[in-house]
Structure prediction request, 139 residues.
Amino acid sequence: MKIVLVDSNSKLPEYSRDGDAGIDFYSRAEAYWEDGTAFVPLGVKVAIPLNHVLLIFSRSGHGFNRGISLVNCVGVIDSNYRGEICVKLKSDRKNQEDIKIGEKVAQGILFELPRIYLDLVDELPISNRGENGFGSSGA
Prediction:
C-alpha cells in the first residue's frame, strides 16, 4: 500500500509485534477533549489497492485502560480516498489526558473485498430460517 506522510510530525504506521493483526496509527498533532470527543489527524494519506478497504479500529489498550474508543466504532477508508486519515475519539471519562503527538491512537487492517453484483428478483429462495429474526435461535 502506497503511503505519504503529511508533515514532519507524521509517523509511519507500523506493526508493534510479529503476529499483530493491525498496524498502529499515530497522532500527528495534539488533540484536546471537548464534550467527550477529540479529533485526531493521523498524518498519513494512502493509496489502498482496488477491491480492498482499510478498516480503522480502536486500540484495545485505549478502551480498557483509558475508556477511549472511536466515535463511529469502525472507520471505513475506501480505495479511492486520497485525503489524510483522521479519527474522532470518544471517552467515557471526565478528566481524560489530551492526546499527544506521536501517541498510538488507532489500528488498521487491510481487507480484500469481493465485488458484489445485485440480481433483482421477485422473491428469494427459501431457507431453513426464513424471516425469523432476533432471538429466533432460542438465545
User: Anything to note?
Assistant: The mean pLDDT is 94. Strands lie at 2-5, 23-26, 37-41, 44-47, 52-57, 68-70, 74-77, 86-91, 104-112. The CA atoms of residues 94 and 105 lie 18 Å apart.
